[in-house]
């Protein structure tokens, strides 16, 4: 069993960390591009079924990861409708699974944030002629620093996810093994130093991202004040 202090030089650890960041950041970027405008549109728009859609979106925030993994597996398997793409057991399949998992979180949280801002700025925006998608995008830009928390919530969910990426990625060494699946595997094998090392790196990354977002938000508030 490898000593804990020597893990910092272990190329396996940093290969796993690199793939984890690549998959999670790609999933968050895609989910944000879809989820932020979707949440804003639901918050600002007035259309039949809006409340039902809001309830469904909030419910999907608690969607079990293994269910998402199973659905993506069925879609990407050879017998599935997208099997010809050959994405199963690849990092791309993991990105798809994580995107579907965190999309409702980002959309629901951004909807709430935009709705709160819309109550405050609705009359002003309407007087300027902004409505519909234009008003939603205007509010998104205005509260962009506050939305960092929403994006980080999605990133934290993606980085900590095990079940879905295990199912669609297969936890293949050097191909689809990420921090969470590696921690689970190494713990079951009894290689606790590597599992602990990956756990420390995961926590450090989450803390660094949150600290950075907090500093950016504080700096923006000081400039606007």
General description of the model:
The chain is mainly α. It has one domain: MetI-like fold, CATH 1.10.3720. It has helices at residues 11-44, 50-60, 65-76, 91-127, 132-142, 147-159, 163-169, 179-189, 192-224. Helix 1 crosses helix 5 (132-142) and helix 6 (147-159) runs antiparallel to helix 9. The longest helix is centred in the middle third of the chain and has 37 residues, at 91-127. 35% of the residues are buried.
Offer a concise description of the structure:
The protein has one domain: Orthogonal Bundle (MetI-like fold). The protein has 9 helices and no strands.
Write the layout of secondary structure elements.
Layout (H helix, E strand, L loop, with lengths): L10 H34 L5 H11 L4 H12 L14 H37 L4 H11 L4 H13 L3 H7 L9 H11 L2 H33 L1
Number of domains: 1
Question: Sheet bearing the most strands, described?
Answer: none
CATH class: Mainly Alpha
- Based on secondary structure, the structural category is mainly alpha
What is the CATH superfamily classification? MetI-like
CATH fold-level name: MetI-like fold
Give the total of beta strands.
0
What level of helicity do the residues show?
over 70%
CATH architecture: Orthogonal Bundle
The gross shape turns out to be: globular
| Rg, Å, rounded | 20 Å
Distance between the termini: 55 Å
Strand content: under 5%
Sequence stretches where pLDDT stays below 50 over 5 or more residues: none
Can you write the helix and strand succession as a string? HHHHHHHHH
Number of helical segments with 4 or more residues: 9
Q: How confident is the prediction overall: mean pLDDT?
A: 84
């Amino acid at each position: 069993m490898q000593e804990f202090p020597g893990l910092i030089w272990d190329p396996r650890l940093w290969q796993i960390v690199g793939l984890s960041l690549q998959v999670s950041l790609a999933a968050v970027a895609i989910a944000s591009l879809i989820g932020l405008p979707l949440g804003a549109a639901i918050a600002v728009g007035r259309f039949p079924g809006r409340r039902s859609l809001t309830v469904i979106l909030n419910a999907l925030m608690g969607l079990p990861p293994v269910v998402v993994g199973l659905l993506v597996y069925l879609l990407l398997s050879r017998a599935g409708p997208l099997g010809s793409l050959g994405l199963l057991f690849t990092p791309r399949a993991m990105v798809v699974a994580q995107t579907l998992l965190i999309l409702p979180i980002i959309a629901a949280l951004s909807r709430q944030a935009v709705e709160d801002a819309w109550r405050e700025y609705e009359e002003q925006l309407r007087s300027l002629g902004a409505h519909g998608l234009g008003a939603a995008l205007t509010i998104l830009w205005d509260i962009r620093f506050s939305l960092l928390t929403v994006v980080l919530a999605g990133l934290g969910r993606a980085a900590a996810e095990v079940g879905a990426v295990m199912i669609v990625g297969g936890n293949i060494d050097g191909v689809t093994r990420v921090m969470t699946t590696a921690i689970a595997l190494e713990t079951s094998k009894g290689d606790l130093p590597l599992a602990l090392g990956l756990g420390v790196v995961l926590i450090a990354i989450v803390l660094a991202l949150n600290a950075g977002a907090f500093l950016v938000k504080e700096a923006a508030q000081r400039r606007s004040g």
